[in-house]
Amino acid sequence: MRKRSTLFQTSLYTEIVINAPKQRVWQALFQKDQWKHWNTFLYDCDSKVPFRKGQEVFLSLRRLPHEDETEIEPVVTQVQPRVCLSWVASIPGFRNEYVFELQEIGVGRTQYIHKNYYSGFLTRVFLPFIRGDEQRGNQRMARELKRYVESF
Questions:
Q1: What is the domain-level CATH number for residue 119?
Q2: Integer angstrom CA distances of residue 105 from 18, 114, 144
Q3: Is pLDDT at 73 greater than 90 in this prediction?
Q4: Considering only CA atoms, which of 54, 74, 70 is closest in space to residue 62?
Q5: Structure confidence at residue 152 as a pLDDT band (50, 70, 90)
Q6: Domain range for residue 137?
Q7: Average model confidence (pLDDT) for the chain?
Q8: Residue 1 lies in a domain
Q9: Do 112 and 96 touch, CB atoms closer than 8 A?
Q10: What angle do the packed helices 123-150 and 22-30 form, to 10 degrees?
Q11: Per the domain annotation, does 2 fall within a domain?
């Protein structure tokens, strides 16, 4: 993983234990065309474009359930099956890296970790307005993933 600049950097962190094997959690997370069945935070806008390192994908997010979606076109930076998926969305002066990690913590139990790293001089401008809503969106996604995967 690339070293991140420490200039105006901050992060968010969410984790949850999912009572399901890592493979099942990975499948739900990686198949973005299936997000519509469980995910009210992130949306796939082009299911023909897969998660592949270096690939630009077209997604949108809804931090609060009734707000308008914010469209993003991140570049996938890492795909390590059943372990890690990450992408970076950026505009000049603002960079947001999403990292999703899966850790096996026992037979049929998976620790799901969602991290966001924000950097750039505009972080101080944007983050105060989105930080709380973004954290709640990350937590909502974790709970929804847990509910969805555990329902099988």
A1: 3.30.530.20
A2: 10, 16, 20
A3: yes
A4: 70
A5: confident
A6: 10-150
A7: 93
A8: no
A9: no
A10: 130
A11: no
